[in-house]
């Protein structure tokens, strides 16, 4: 019988905390069982397997990130919106590195379509409306922003910018300025 008080949601939250502590790749049902001091079998009434746990953590992370981004974007447009959106991703990754890694998990199409990932795409496209981009340029710009944000954050988290001046924050600000300038002057095909 499962321990009273354990739910799939509670396990996902505990798994997210564990991911932030030890890394997303290290999260397993066994590790979670040890955290709750229960037998692994008792968690299987709430979780199918470690992949199910990881998917739940990814969905939780996407939801948290979307909520933060929506709050940050309220009432903003143009460069202010772009900067606020980018800073949400960077700040979230710094505060929750395991959850941020979870948010990158490849989800099956049905799960992805029902996830907060859809809200992320909608918010990115809303930001780009301020730059008057049409398709297919808007899709190219969505991919560019995602690549720059994720690439910068990943390199920074890995210590890639800690060995030289100027400070990483200065480079981040300059990168966002460059993105804003590029989006305002998007090249014709």
Write the layout of secondary structure elements.
Blueprint: H1 8-22, H2 29-36, H3 40-43, H4 50-73, H5 78-95, H6 97-102, H7 109-113, H8 117-129, H9 137-157, H10 168-184
Pfam families: TetR_C_33 (PF13305), TetR_N (PF00440)
Domain HTH tetR-type: 5-65
DNA-binding region: 28-47
Report on this model:
Helix content is 69%, strand content 0%. It has 10 helices and no strands. The protein is globular, with a radius of gyration of 19 Å.
Largest sheet: none
Helices and strands, in order, run as HHHHHHHHHH
Helix vs. strand class? mainly alpha
Q: What general outline do the C-alpha atoms trace?
A: globular
How many whole angstroms does the radius of gyration measure? 19 Å
User: What is the residue-mean pLDDT, rounded to a whole number?
Assistant: 93
How many angstroms separate the termini?
Answer: 62 Å
Number of strands: 0
Low-confidence stretches: none
Proportion of β residues?
under 5%
* Helix percent band: 55-70%
Q: What count of helical segments does DSSP give? A: 10
Features:
189 residues; mainly alpha; 69% helix
Give a short summary of the structure.
The chain is mainly alpha-helical and 189 residues long. It contains ten helices and no strands. Helix 5 (78-95) runs antiparallel to helix 8, helix 8 crosses helix 9 (137-157) and helix 9 runs antiparallel to helix 10 (168-184).
